[in-house]
């Protein structure tokens, strides 16, 4: 059984912003969250995780998929900063 970290995007303890209220209906971000949460079958990821008894909890695939797809939609294809080259 997969052991995932809790999704705390709707918590208001440390950050006084509820992210669910910040995503407006009709936006790409809203559609992305809706599709990932309600339309995609992510149960295939559970077979990859065998950390219910040992190991640290993993981030939920739905959260990671939303981050990756949103990054790609905004043109971010690498997590590394692009270095500018100076001519010699």
UniProtKB/TrEMBL annotation:
Superkingdom of origin organism: Bacteria
Cited InterPro entries: Transposase_InsH_N
Ranges of residues in domain Transposase InsH N-terminal: 22-81
Classification via Pfam families: DUF772
Name under which the protein is recorded: Transposase
Native source organism of the sequence: Pseudoalteromonas arctica
């Amino acid at each position: 059984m997969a052991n995932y970290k809790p999704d705390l995007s709707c918590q208001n303890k440390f950050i006084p912003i509820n992210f669910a209220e910040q995503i407006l209906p009709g936006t790409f971000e809203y559609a992305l969250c809706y599709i990932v949460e309600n339309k995609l079958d992510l149960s295939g990821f559970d077979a990859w995780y065998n950390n219910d008894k040992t190991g640290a909890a993993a981030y939920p695939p739905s959260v990671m998929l939303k981050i990756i797809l949103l990054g790609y939609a905004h043109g971010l294809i690498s997590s590394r900063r692009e270095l500018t080259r100076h001519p010699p």
